[in-house]
Structures are given as structure tokens and as C-alpha cells.
């Protein structure tokens, strides 16, 4: 009888230790995931800043005055004379 009680106590102790290690491992994995989430959020913030900068750059580069200046200076294009311009009615 005493032998069975001892085996039961040892079995319960092993189950308790296994449960404790499972809790420790679970908490460790949870912390790793939390750290990874933080890294991903910082990367997302950086991408949002970069997106805003690109939107601003696109607006600047697509400005009508800028396009006209590039056409004149770099491409050496000139506006056609008024007499050569043809207007088409929709």
C-alpha cells in the first residue's frame, strides 16, 4: 500500500513538473511572438513613412510646371505655334 502511494506521489510530481515546463515553454513562445509583433509594427511604421514620402515625391514630379520645365530644358521640346494647333470637339 505504501509502495502504491509513493508511486502515485512520484507520478503526480512528474506530471506537475511536466506541466510547469509546459507553462514555461508556452510563456517563452509568447514572448518571442510579442517581440516579433513589435518588430513587424516598427517595419510597418517605416513603410508608411516611406509611402508618404513617395506620394509627396510623385505629386512633385507630376506637377504640370515641372513636366513643362523638363520638356523644355532636358528634351528640348517647344510648344507649337497657335496657328498649327488643332482643336477637336468631343
UniProtKB/TrEMBL annotation:
Q: Which organism is it from?
A: Crenothrix polyspora
Q: Which UniProt keywords apply?
A: Cell cycle, Cell division, Cell inner membrane, Cell membrane, Membrane, Transmembrane, Transmembrane helix
Q: Which domain of life is it from?
A: Bacteria
Spell out the GO cellular component terms annotated for this protein, sorted alphabetically and separated by semicolons.
cell division site; plasma membrane
The topology of this chain with respect to the membrane is:
Single-pass type II membrane protein
Pfam families recorded = FtsL
Q: Which InterPro entries match?
A: Cell_div_FtsL (IPR011922)
List the protein's name: Cell division protein FtsL
**One GO term of the biological process aspect:** FtsZ-dependent cytokinesis
Q: Where in the cell is it found?
A: Cell inner membrane; Cell membrane
Subunit-structure text: Part of a complex composed of FtsB, FtsL and FtsQ.
- What HAMAP family is this protein classified in? FtsL
Summarizing the function annotation, the protein's role is: Essential cell division protein. May link together the upstream cell division proteins, which are predominantly cytoplasmic, with the downstream cell division proteins, which are predominantly periplasmic.
Q: Which family does it belong to?
A: Belongs to the FtsL family.
Upper lineage: Bacteria, Pseudomonadati, Pseudomonadota, Gammaproteobacteria, Methylococcales
